[in-house]
Amino acid sequence: MSPIREAVKSDLNGIVETSRSLGYPMREITDVENDLAELIRSERDRLWVFTVDAAVVGWLHAYVSIRAASTAFVEICGLAVHPEHQRQGIGSALASHASDWSAEKGLKLRVRCSSVREDTHELYRKQGFSTVKTQLVFDKNL
């Protein structure tokens, strides 16, 4: 059996633990639970988990972005692998899985990644992604 599968409600704690271990900001658990239920129901979103001995140690969220019929694409909008399981090919396996799903749909695959996550940049480059744009984000506290 493949260690990658679509997420189910009972994966909540593993997803939260993996996310917290990487410093992702976490909301109330009930909000995360509601988000997970919505993703599971969605036709355009996929949330895959990678399991080791039935425990969630990584996840990837992708969705079909439809801006216009000619510019639809799949976007990876989240990928996390628990630090104890990094550098074992889990992130690459999840990215490959998303790539296969995108190819089945006949759509290109896109990912946006924080400029400070240089290890992640290398993971995506090894997966065949290339940089098409860099940008800065500015906030103004009012």
TrEMBL record:
Gene Ontology MF annotations: N-acetyltransferase activity
Record-linked InterPro entries: Acyl_CoA_acyltransferase, GNAT_dom, NAT_camello-type
Residue span, N-acetyltransferase domain: 2-142
UniProt entry tagged with the keyword NADP: no
One Pfam family this sequence matches: Acetyltransf_1
Domain of life: Bacteria
TM region(s), chain numbering: none
Gene3D superfamilies: 3.40.630.30
Keywords of this entry: Transferase
Alphabetized PANTHER family for the sequence: GNAT FAMILY N-ACETYLTRANSFERASE, LD18367P
Protein name as annotated: Putative acetyltransferase
